[in-house]
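Side project, low priority. Logging it here so it doesn't get lost.
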Amino acid sequence: MMTKRHARILALVFLSFTAVLSPSVTAQSARDKLEAIQFPPDRTTTVLQGTLLLRCKAEAENCNPEKKGYSLHAQAGQSLTLKLSPSRGNVIINDILGIDRKSVIPTDADEDFWYGWTVKLKENGEYRIYVSTTETAKRVNSYTLNVTLK
C-alpha cells in the first residue's frame, strides 16, 4: 500500500520530469508543424496567405521572431518559384530546405531571396519553406506567398 509520503514523492518526481522535458518537446512539435501546400487541379501556382503574430514581453525589444513552415512534394528537375508580398509588417522567406533538411539557397545569396526565389530542385521528395518575421516586425504581420512548381 502506498503512503501519502510515497505518493507525494512520486508526484514530485513526475512533475520534475515533466517540467524538464516539456519545453523541448513543445518547441520541437511547433517547429515541425508544417502546412502542406496544395495546388488547384491543372494549376502550377497557388497563393498562400498568412499572418504571423509576435508574442512579446513588456518591451518591443523582447519579441522573438515567429516562423511558419510549409511542406511541398516535388520531383527532381522541377523549378520552384516563390514570391513573397508582405502586406502588413515585416515578413521574409527565411529558408527553403531540401529533402536532406539542408538549405537549397546558395550561401552566396544576397538579401533579395527574402522576397522571391527560383530554384531548380535536384531530388524527389518533400521540401520545406519557412517564412518568418524580422527584427523590426510589428505585432501583426500579414503576407501573401505565391508558390509556382513547374
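Brief comment: Residues 34-149 form a domain with the Jelly Rolls fold (CATH 2.60.120.380).
Revisit when time allows.
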